UniProtKB/TrEMBL annotation:
UniProt xrefs under SUPFAM superfamilies: Cytochrome P450
One of the Pfam families matching this protein, by short name: p450
Cross-referenced PROSITE patterns: CYTOCHROME_P450 (PS00086)
InterPro entries assigned to the protein according to its UniProt record, in alphabetical order: Cyt_P450 (IPR001128), Cyt_P450_B (IPR002397), Cyt_P450_CS (IPR017972), Cyt_P450_sf (IPR036396)
Protein name, entry field: Cytochrome P450
Superkingdom, natural source: Bacteria
Entry keyword set: Heme, Iron, Metal-binding, Monooxygenase, Oxidoreductase
Family: Belongs to the cytochrome P450 family.
């Protein structure tokens, strides 16, 4: 999705439909969300197959949905595009369960995701990411997305327990698995490519799990989830390994991609960025708020309730639009401006409540390391063409980012 440096424009407000995936590759949807935030209650929307869903777009409403797992369950699907009978991993994968089962699964991985655990990864991430920087050093013009396809794996590859020789194919597949860039593609072509990407990921992870991965890795701990879930009909360890990979790999690079677009187009921000000795958490938080890599998450109501004055019936689908909440004028002063030291910054990019991203500390560390290395190595950066954006209403993604770089 295109994110304007100056905020939404009237020309962007051509429709109030927030499902249509093709528009996310072309438009700045913030104009649509801003208009809908001004309306009363939750917004009624309809998917192309005729299924209705409710949309929460204001910060307070999104917060209420995300923080109440008893009323708004994750044990169905987290994406609008995956509905029908629900996600195949529903009730088995970490992000598709509710407490108490969710807590049992989460307990398996928590020791790998604490602040001290993340800090122990710092040296290794820095070394691997520095090696990746050396592969592009000196190139004056390149597609950042293609050249740095293994960037997320420098952060999560070892933690996941995935061998380095699989990082390139895994990195490319995780991007393809979220959507494409070609809005002219037929629905059949797009679905085939998504299937192919998901199959690649499952094949890689299946092989890792069969090879007895390190016990201190995510895949090494995944077998314990089978005991927690107790479902013998599904490969629960594989479903949880897949959930972790797909949760970690898109978020970090897409936050970085959107921030680089901003740095390449805003001389004042680049000047500020270049003067900093190191990247602090406030900059990372603002990058996460600005990029909001996950546009929405889906929940299903378990009981009849009322939210924002809107009647919600048991079984209704409720989408919580994180990207909209992160630009809510009632919460964020000057929300369409990137303020690198914004404080307070109560962004929802990592979610909220029991489903707040378990890997947030590792992700934040990886982004700090990247931006420190970028500052250390790059004298100037500008766009060398128009970025291409993902065809997806779920992930705010960039699939092609042509940059012109002057190296130090």
């Amino acid at each position: 999705m295109r994110v304007s440096l100056t905020g939404p424009e009237i020309s962007d407000l051509t429709s109030s439909d927030i499902y249509d995936e093709s528009q996310y590759a072309q438009r700045n949807m913030h104009a649509v969300w801003q208009g809908l935030r001004k309306a009363d209650g939750l917004q009624f929307q309809t998917a192309p197959d005729g299924q209705d869903f409710l949309a929460a777009l204001r910060y307070a409403d999104v917060r209420d949905v995300l923080s109440d797992h008893r009323t708004f369950s994750s044990a169905y699907s987290t994406m609008l595009t995956v509905r029908g009978e629900g996600d195949v991993a529903a009730g088995a994968a970490l992000h598709l369960t509710d407490p108490p089962l969710h807590s049992d699964i989460k307990r398996v991985f928590t020791p790998l995701m604490t602040v001290p655990a993340a800090q122990r990864l710092q040296q290794g991430i820095t070394e691997r990411m520095s090696e990746l920087f050396e592969t592009i050093r000196g190139r004056e013009s390149f597609d950042f997305c293609d050249a740095m396809v293994t960037l997320p794996m420098t952060i999560t590859g070892q933690l996941m327990g995935i061998p380095q020789q699989e990082w390139s194919v895994t990195g490319r597949a995780t991007v393809r698995a979220m959507g494409g860039a070609d809005t002219e593609q037929s629905d059949y072509q797009r679905r085939f490519e998504l299937f192919e990407a998901h199959t690649t990921i499952m094949s890689v992870l299946g092989g890792v799990l069969e090879d007895s991965p390190p016990a201190d890795s995510v895949t090494g701990r995944c077998p314990a989830t089978a005991r927690a879930v107790g479902d013998t009909d599904r490969d629960v360890p594989l479903l949880n390994a897949y959930a972790f990979l797909m949760g970690a790999n898109p978020t970090v690079p897409q936050t970085i991609n959107q921030t680089l677009i901003l740095l390449a187009g805003d001389d004042d921000l680049w000047s500020w960025f270049s003067r900093q000795e190191q990247t602090d958490q406030s900059f990372v938080d603002e990058a996460l708020r600005w990029a909001s890599p996950v546009n929405h998450v889906l929940r299903r109501a378990t009981v009849d309730t009322v939210l924002a004055g809107t009647r919600v019936r048991a079984g209704d689908l409720v989408s919580a639009w994180i990207a909209s909440a992160n630009r809510d004028e009632e919460v964020f002063a000057d929300p369409f401006r990137f303020i690198p030291d914004r404080s307070p910054n109560r962004h929802l990019a990592f979610g909220l409540g029991v489903h707040r991203c378990i890997g947030q500390h590792v992700a934040a560390l990886g982004m700090r390391i990247f931006f420190d290395l970028w500052r250390k190595n790059v004298r100037s950066v500008s766009l060398d063409g128009d970025p291409k954006h993902l065809v997806s209403n779920f992930l705010n993604g960039v699939v092609c980012l042509p940059l012109a770089v002057t190296w130090k």
